[in-house]
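# step 3/5: fold
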Amino acid sequence: GTDPYAAHAVGMHFMNLGFAFGDGMQMAAVSLIGMSLGAKDKEKAKKISLLAQKMGLCMSVTMVVILLLFAQSLYGFYFKESYMLDMCMLINGFIAVIMPIQVSKIIFNGILRGAGDVRYTLYASAFSVTLLQPLVSYILVIIVGLGLKGVWLSILTTQTAQFLCFGLRYKSGKWAEKEI
């Protein structure tokens, strides 16, 4: 419906703050990891990857705290109706869980891409975005009938799947062994 979609759209605006920061950190990771590994300095690449993840976690937690503390006021700029604010608070709870996962997975993706592991990141992203999210969305929204909650559970599922795929690949250390 129109009201749930409006609340969803506003929630996505706030979630895009995480995307924006994650994308910036990802670009830095791609460049710095690529340069370090290209110079055969694996230790520097590992230090940069840890620093990028720490910075991403700090920033995402800061954004989550701001969203949690000021949610009523922030969403109040868009809606005055209590039922709309209730939907926004539901979404805000999902964002609070998703944002640190999202930022970390974006940075892991950048680290892997900077190391030249682009085929893996392509396949993992393609699987989760083209198959997993539509399937989970369909099941939760249409079959189970969860509506707005199902949409956000689907987003959480996809972000978590990508986080696990990229995070496990990162933890394996294979990315630091690639020749650039």
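# step 4/5: annotate
The chain has six helices and no strands.
# step 5/5: archive (pending)
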